[in-house]
Q: What sequence folds into this?
């Protein structure tokens, strides 16, 4: 399995702010290695965030997203103590899922 | 006002407005760079290295299947918190002045049974290549965040390394006649659009030293002071600086000492 | 008479000692000690061999310069004179093509161990200088060269000065931070002529 994500979720006003750091090479498929060969494309394609089983964010990513991507978003309808689950899948079929508890 | 006074006042006003105009010009470029830095500051990928480094510190590795948890980084065996602020320093067990990376090599050899060659192999990560060294550096540096640098030169070997580092800093060589001082020896300069700290000035040295190691966005890696020195010398057209070599430690000690009192804020994030 | 001579000689010797100790106290390593540590700390890689650590007279003297201690006037004069003797000018015109000069000014590679020695080097002028107004990514280690020809005059003497300055900056300013592009074999004669054109051609963007 891929390296774990770092997730922080806090209540900000009447919303919840989530910050996620994902460990991923995010190769565009355009880069050449030192021998001149193309480094194959390897990037996160889908990201979903769910809280209490409900999807609060759904994203489709491509090679334009940077290596070790940082995602930050806010949503309404959850409270401190709820669990946020972030899942990503990439174009190799790799998957990673981590969760965090929303802090006050 | 008498004519002389008027002329002097006019001259002063002219210089002032020219200075302001220049300052504004510098400001708009510098301001944009500052905004870029602020945007980067949120979500430093170095945290991923810190997490990996903490596991590597505790993991049983090497022929002796031992962890690094008894490694003395300068504040006693196993003390990680604050250790980065006293390095480089003289260690009685090796009789040498050591920086963080050479100390990790010492412990990998003594505690885990690696050979020095194995411990020093591949010190810097690259695309798709994860190495233990930069993760350990990231973790240990993070445990000194918020604490001031207090490197000692009381021991004669520390003093010697400090003086050596200072001489090396000004050593001009190679086909371009570059020394560290060529870029880092004057006030308020930049190379292309990269501001250059004047490392002979304690205020600049504090700002610079306390933000290494750092996640370099352009590299996609956490880079340490050893890496920074190595890559400077490459661009100075020197041959390659060896990992944990005497010159690298002498230079680190000179810089760390000049940065005395600077509050650590590493791993930072840089372009 | 003998006592006066002895006193004078003693004074001269002591003055010499004082000057030396002002530069080096007991804890300062000698240039030889520094070089020994460097040779034990660097390894040859690519085109960068260990001989790059051996200093010529300019590098040796200029390594003693400190922010609060500029080069002594006598030494500065010696450097300028010895470096003037290295200047080699092309036969015929000193002006090349400014478009090629701009490329030389933009290119930051050359002579690093990560560079292919078969590729021509650049001068990386923009690392330190402002030049063409369209290039906003310029450094401030050296003075702005924007409108150089326009302000200094489009004369043969100025072309010769520019060529010489790029060829060996130490011939004009002892312990200059600027590399000696011609003397150290970084740029070819044609490349230096192209840089002269970048600064001195009335049509060059630098002079617009």
A:
């Amino acid at each position: 399995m891929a390296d774990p994500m770092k997730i922080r979720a806090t209540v900000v006003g009447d919303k919840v702010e989530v910050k996620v750091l994902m460990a991923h090479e995010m190769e565009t498929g355009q880069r050449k290695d030192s021998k001149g060969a193309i480094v194959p494309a390897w990037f996160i394609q889908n990201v979903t965030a769910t809280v209490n089983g409900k999807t609060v964010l759904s994203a489709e990513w491509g090679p334009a997203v940077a290596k070790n991507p940082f995602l930050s978003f806010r949503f309404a309808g959850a409270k401190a103590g709820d669990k946020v689950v972030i899942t990503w899948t990439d174009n190799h079929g790799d998957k990673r899922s981590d969760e965090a508890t929303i802090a006050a | 006002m008498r004519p002389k006074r008027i002329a002097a006042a006019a001259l002063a006003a002219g210089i002032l407005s020219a200075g302001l105009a220049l300052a504004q010009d510098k400001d708009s470029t510098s301001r944009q760079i500052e905004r870029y830095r602020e945007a980067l500051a949120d979500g430093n990928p170095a945290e991923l290295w810190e997490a990996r480094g903490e596991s590597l510190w505790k993991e049983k590795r090497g022929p002796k299947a031992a962890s690094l948890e008894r490694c003395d980084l300068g504040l006693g065996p196993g003390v990680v918190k604050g250790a980065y602020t006293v390095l480089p320093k003289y260690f009685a067990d090796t009789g040498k002045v050591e920086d963080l990376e050479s100390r990790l090599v010492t412990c990998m050899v003594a505690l885990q049974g690696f050979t020095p060659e194995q411990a020093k192999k591949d010190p810097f990560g690259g695309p798709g290549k994860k190495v233990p060294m930069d993760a350990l550096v990231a973790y240990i540096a993070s445990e000194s965040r918020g604490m001031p640098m207090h490197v000692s030169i009381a021991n004669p070997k520390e003093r010697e390394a400090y003086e050596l580092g200072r001489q090396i800093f000004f050593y001009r060589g190679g086909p371009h006649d570059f020394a560290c001082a060529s870029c880092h020896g004057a006030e308020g300069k930049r190379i292309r659009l990269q501001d250059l700290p004047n490392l002979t000035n304690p205020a600049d040295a504090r700002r610079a030293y306390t933000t290494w190691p750092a996640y370099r966005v352009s590299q996609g890696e956490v880079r340490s002071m050893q890496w920074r020195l190595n890559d400077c010398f490459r661009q100075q057209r020197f041959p390659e600086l060896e990992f944990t070599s005497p010159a690298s430690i002498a230079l680190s000690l000179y810089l760390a000492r000049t940065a005395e009192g600077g509050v650590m804020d590493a791993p930072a994030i840089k372009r | 008479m003998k006592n006066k001579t002895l006193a004078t000689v003693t004074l001269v010797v002591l003055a010499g000692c004082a000057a030396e100790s002002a530069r080096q106290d007991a804890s300062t390593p000698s240039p030889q000690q520094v070089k020994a540590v460097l040779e034990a700390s660097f390894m040859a890689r690519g085109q960068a061999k260990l001989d790059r650590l051996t200093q010529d007279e300019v590098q040796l003297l200029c390594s003693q310069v400190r922010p609060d201690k500029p080069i002594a006037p006598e030494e500065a004069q010696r450097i300028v004179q010895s470096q003037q003797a290295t200047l080699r000018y092309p036969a015929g015109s000193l002006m090349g093509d400014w478009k090629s000069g701009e490329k030389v000014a933009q290119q930051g590679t050359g002579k690093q161990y990560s560079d292919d020695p078969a590729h021509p080097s650049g001068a990386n002028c923009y690392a330190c200088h402002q030049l063409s107004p369209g290039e906003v990514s310029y450094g401030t280690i050296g003075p702005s060269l924007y409108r150089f020809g326009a302000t200094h005059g489009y004369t043969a003497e100025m072309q010769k000065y520019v060529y010489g300055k790029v060829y060996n900056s130490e011939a004009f300013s002892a312990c200059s931070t600027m590399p000696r592009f011609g003397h150290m074999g970084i740029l070819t004669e044609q490349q230096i002529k192209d840089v002269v054109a970048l600064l001195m051609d009335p049509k060059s963007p630098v002079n617009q």
